[in-house]
Amino acid sequence: MGAQHTDDQGKSVRKKGSPFVWLIPLMLLLTIAMGLAVYYVYEDKVNKDVNQLQMQAQKKALEGKYEESIKLLDTALTKRPDHYGILLDRGIAAEANELEEQLAQARSSLKAKKITAAEKKLGELSKKLKSRSEPLFKPLKNDLSSLQVTLSVMKVKAELDQLATVPKLAEKLETINKLKGKEAAELEKQIISKIIEISLSDAAERLKSNDFSGATLAVEGGLAYAKEDKRLIEQKDRILQEQAAFERAEAKRIEIARQKAAEEDLVNRTAAVEVVHMNTVLDDYGDLRVEGQVRNVATRPISSVLIELSVYNLDGSFLGSGTIDVSPYVLERGQSGEFRSVLYGAYTEGQAVVDNITWYVE
After folding, report:
1. Interacting residues of 313 by C-beta distance below 8 A, sequence separation 6+
2. What is the pTM assigned to this prediction?
3. Cβ-count burial of 219 within 10 angstroms (0-12 exposed, 13-18 middle, 19+ buried)?
4. Are 184 and 197 in contact (CB under 8 A)?
5. Are strands 336-343 and 288-296 parallel, antiparallel or unpaired?
6. Helices and strands of the chain, counted as H and E runs
7. What does the pLDDT look like over 254-280, one tens digit per residue?
8. What would the pLDDT profile of 109-133 be if each residue is shown by its tens digit?
9. Chain centroid to CA 102: how far?
10. CA atoms of 36 and 56, how far apart (whole Å)
């Protein structure tokens, strides 16, 4: 019985100690599980924070706010220093930020009108950005394009004062038409305005010499680039009016010239010779000597002047007649010539009368 009692006590003791056998491992398991849970929650929160920071950084980068993007990525790297994606994003954002600083330098050069330096810098940036297709570089490409337009505009402006012909200005206008932006549009207006001024000036100068075709071409050259310009349209109308008036005046002048030419031709052929004076003298031998002077009153030279004379005594009786050559053979306009003749054996005073005069018009 004693032994049995002992066994019973032993059993009784084992029954009282059995809960500790499984309780301790369970508690340990629960502790590990809770630790893992806490760790998981913590890590999950860190991952979410990192992902959120990365997304914010990407958004800023796409907006062209590269410095803000870098700060966000640096914050994410404090949580995940070895995160490959964040390290990659930061490297790209840093490169974009550096290119933005270089664009700012080029912009400063343009503002200072250092065209050569700006052109060199923009050329370098264009090569670098050409190989980058990431979306965050798009704002930089837009800025580059804008600065290139500004550069082209400034280069044309620098040459504009030296251009004084419509064809040269038209070449620059063609260059500007390929560009976009407010500056290009303003310069286009400026070039067109200068084309208008040159066209008007050229047309006015040609009008002074009645070069109506040239004046019309000058105006048409301007209208090719400014179809609705009021001054060019008015100048074109003025050219047409002045041309019509000139043609009427010219037609009238030609008619008057024809009439005058006809009158002159009539004079030249019917009254080209004027008898200045003529004397008839009886010499000691009884001969009547006739001498005189004529003048060319035509508008052209005349030649081979012949004078037909008749000689009468003082009572009017006919004594004789003849033809006398005038010397010199050719008489220029306004030039005088002389003639002489002798009626032999008249033995009386008398007078000579010009019956006819003939000549040739040169």
Report:
1. 319, 346, 348, 349, 350
2. 0.53
3. buried
4. no
5. antiparallel
6. 10, 7
7. 999 888 888 888 888 888 899 999 999
8. 888 888 888 888 888 888 888 888 8
9. 34
10. 30
